[in-house]
């Protein structure tokens, strides 16, 4: 670039070049040079949350009489422009940056100030009549805006994640109803067990996912207790009287969330507990999804040399060398995402405990890790539901074949002949390879048809198991 491509701005460290057409300013430009780490800019929900905070602060400061109406309205108009989707490419600071998120905060302050000043007839980088610190950041600090933005971004992502989990649970419920009479052998310790139904297995997955939804939803109320107004150390220094309450009311209106000031503003910048609780719930979901995905992959194994009781839809060729091979790729993908989400939770835990005294300076990376886990899982769950569960078919004959070959059926005879005698029948079935139903009939205990009826009853209502 030639010199005409830049403008010169000044801050407490001196002069610095800023791209002439950029809406951001000198502190953002310095951060771009200092923190070329991940190549990833801020999360979109996080950026929008910060802009909403600036909008709410301007309105609150105007109401408190410390920000001239003309300036407040220019800031609000600039924020509305961004919230409508404009200029999002101007939020450029790397996710790994100076502690606490000062560079994130100043990136937002500078973009809003420049937009507002140009709208009022000024120039980019001149910061007249609106200054990024004195007006856009009035009554605020990085220390109270960033943790508040993290909360708002998590609140924005939770409904999308919950919707994805709910859709998957609904699909399992549909399969559960569809296969309620598909009798099969249960397996415990990966060994043959008593009769069950495929519907019962699917319904159990749905039930567990509903529990995960409840756990995720339980994290919402604590996130709504914000520390905005605490400024630098929770003392409220330089915030106008009444600002904290007014800003929370404005922010609640903008987000649709029941936000309110925390009873201890200092605690909300020291502690990341509420965000850690979100991560805990996300990790629990990832653990359950890992288990369920592994089950589905196991049930789909084969199809001829494995279990092969379910058949996932063929969404792509399964091998570059073996023709006709179809793999459970959507659940392999879901496993991988779940492992990544669990890794992000570990990073979050380390950063949660790394807070010191009045501030946790790990917030930028902590937020990034949480947002990634939530976004990745949301997309992965949706894809696995759409392309893995929908279209899944069942080999009912395969289920029936395994059922009647299972020595676990001898368990059904415990009430009639006792555990010891039933064990002998199971051993005889294992030794001879004959189905338990044939051995029962041969011993005159009951007819094969009566035994089949007993199996069906046990599988459907579990009373004999």
Structural notes for this entry:
- With 465 residues, the protein is mainly alpha-helical.
- It folds into 3 domains: 3-138, Orthogonal Bundle (Fumarase C, Chain B, domain 1); 145-228 and 258-394, Fumarase C, Chain A, domain 2; 406-461, Ribonucleotide Reductase Protein R1, domain 1 (Orthogonal Bundle), CATH 1.10.40.
- Helix content is 59%, strand content 7%.
- It has 17 helices and 8 strands.
- The strands form 4 sheets. A two-stranded antiparallel ribbon has the order 1-2. The chain has a two-stranded antiparallel sheet with strand order 3-4. It has a two-stranded parallel sheet with strand order 5-6.
- β5, α9 (243-255) and β6 form a beta-alpha-beta unit.
- The longest helix is centred in the middle third of the chain and has 37 residues, at 142-178.
- It is elongated, with a radius of gyration of 30 Å.
- The relative contact order is 0.10.
- The mean pLDDT is 94.
List the helices and strands and how they pair.
Elements: E1 6-11, E2 14-19, H1 26-34, H2 44-63, H3 69-83, H4 102-119, H5 132-136, H6 142-178, E3 183-188, E4 191-197, H7 198-217, H8 220-223, E5 225-226, H9 243-255, E6 260-261, H10 267-270, H11 273-299, E7 310-311, H12 329-352, H13 363-389, E8 393-394, H14 396-405, H15 414-432, H16 436-442, H17 448-461
Helix pairs in contact: 1-4, 2-3, 2-4, 2-6, 2-9, 3-4, 4-6, 6-7, 6-13, 7-11, 11-12, 11-13, 12-13, 16-17
């Amino acid at each position: 670039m030639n010199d005409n491509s830049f403008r010169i701005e000044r801050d407490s460290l001196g002069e610095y070049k800023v791209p002439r057409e950029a809406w951001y300013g000198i502190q953002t430009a310095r951060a771009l040079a200092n923190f070329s780490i991940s190549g990833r800019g801020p999360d979109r929900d996080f950026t929008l949350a910060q802009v909403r905070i600036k909008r709410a602060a301007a309105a609150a400061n105007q109401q408190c009489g410390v920000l001239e109406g003309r300036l407040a309205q220019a800031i609000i108009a600039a924020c509305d422009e961004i919230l409508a989707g404009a200029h999002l490419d101007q939020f450029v600071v790397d996710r790994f940056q100076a502690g606490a998120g000062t560079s994130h905060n100043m990136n937002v302050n500078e973009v809003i100030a420049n937009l507002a000043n140009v709208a009022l007839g000024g120039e980019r980088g001149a910061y007249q009549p609106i200054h990024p610190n004195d007006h856009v950041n009035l009554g605020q600090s990085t220390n109270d805006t960033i943790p508040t933005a993290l909360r708002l971004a998590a609140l924005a992502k939770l409904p999308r994640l919950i919707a994805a989990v709910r859709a998957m649970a609904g699909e399992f419920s549909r399969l559960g109803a569809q296969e309620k009479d598909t009798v099969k052998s249960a397996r415990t310790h990966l060994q043959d067990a008593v009769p069950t139904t495929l519907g019962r297995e699917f319904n159990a997955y749905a039930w567990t996912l509903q529990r995960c939804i409840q756990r995720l939803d339980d994290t919402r109320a604590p996130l709504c207790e914000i520390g905005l107004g605490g400024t630098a150390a929770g003392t409220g220094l330089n915030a106008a009287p009444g600002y904290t309450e007014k800003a929370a009311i404005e922010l609640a209106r903008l987000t649709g969330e029941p936000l309110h000031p925390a009873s201890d503003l200092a605690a909300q910048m020291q502690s990341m507990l509420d965000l850690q609780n979100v991560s805990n719930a996300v990790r629990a979901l990832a653990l359950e999804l890992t288990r369920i995905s592994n089950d589905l992959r196991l049930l789909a194994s084969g199809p001829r040399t494995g279990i092969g009781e379910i058949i996932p839809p063929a969404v792509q060729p399964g091998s570059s060398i073996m023709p006709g091979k179809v793999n459970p790729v959507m659940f392999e993908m879901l496993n991988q995402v779940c492992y990544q989400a669990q890794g992000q939770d570990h990073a979050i835990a380390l950063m949660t405990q790394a807070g010191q005294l009045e501030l946790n300076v790990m917030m930028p990376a902590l937020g990034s890790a949480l947002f990634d886990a939530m976004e990745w899982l949301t997309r992965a769950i949706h894809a696995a539901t759409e392309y893995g569960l929908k279209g899944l078919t069942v080999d009912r004959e395969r289920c029936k074949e395994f059922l009647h070959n299972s020595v676990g059926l001898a368990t059904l005879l415990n009430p009639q002949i006792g555990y010891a005698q039933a064990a002998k029948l199971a051993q005889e079935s294992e030794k001879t390879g004959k189905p338990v139903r044939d051995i029962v009939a041969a011993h005159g205990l009951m007819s094969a048809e009566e035994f089949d009826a007993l199996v069906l009853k046990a599988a459907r209502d579990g009373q004999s198991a």
